[in-house]
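Justification of computing resources. Each target in the renewal requires a structure prediction run like the one illustrated here; the chain below, 298 residues long, is used simply to show the kind of job we budget for.
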Amino acid sequence: MHWEPLLKAYEGFLKLEKGLSSNSIEAYLRDIHKLKQFLELKQINAEPRDLQYQHLYDFLVWINELGLSARSQARTLSGLKAFYHYLLVEDLVAKDPTALLEGPKLGRKLPEVLSVQEIDQLLARIDLSKPEGSRNKAMLETLYSCGLRVSELLELKISNIYRAEGFMRIIGKGDKERLVPVSPRALKEIDLYMPDRNNLQIQPGSENVLFLNRRGRMLTRVMVFTIIKDLAKAAGIQKSVSPHTFRHSFATHLVEGGADLRAVQEMLGHESILTTEIYTHLDRDYLKDTINQFHPRS
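Resulting structure tokens:
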């Protein structure tokens, strides 16, 4: 049986025989759709009955690298096991390839994920009466709303913000460029920051740099790290928080909200999982729609 009729039958099983709520059914189906997307992106033309342990293991490695939290990975694995249990009971597969599946042990701890509430708590601790307050708020809102690396944030140019289109042009690793949708909220905070920025004595070479220190120069990574650490402490957040936490939270919130993995991958500018060619067909309107539909800031 092909994917679509099989998923339709599985949906009926979850609704009629398991009596699950619509939210629970949607979560189960989302896990299987993630697997289906992974196979498409890896150009693996296979039906569920054809998949082996290694296919599913590679899928779990992939979502780990994508940045899903440990909890989300565990839930996805649970969804896969439930799906294949159904196929086994219905005699649609001869054996269960998830039986020995435990989740990838990659030898590294994933960064912490902040909830939307925790991000709001952290931002609320910014003292807007201080000269750097509006800058810090605009900076962290941009970091979270756009999923930027800290280096990309520090090097962000005013001329690379396309307000009318709602995009930022980002220069990523290896000087590779990408366009990332920017939320109206981030743009608003940038607008509130600009008068303070323009009152600085801006040093030669920094005229086009968006976020500056009080001496009119580009910020350092250490300074951004310190700002975030101090705010997290003031907000009573016990997690280990760094600039990358915002990027990781950006990706996790989008994916957990149901965003297409290909769009998230494109916006992150990652190449460790997929080659660029796989998702060059994604247009800017599609990426912008993904942000508008799934990101908490939209």
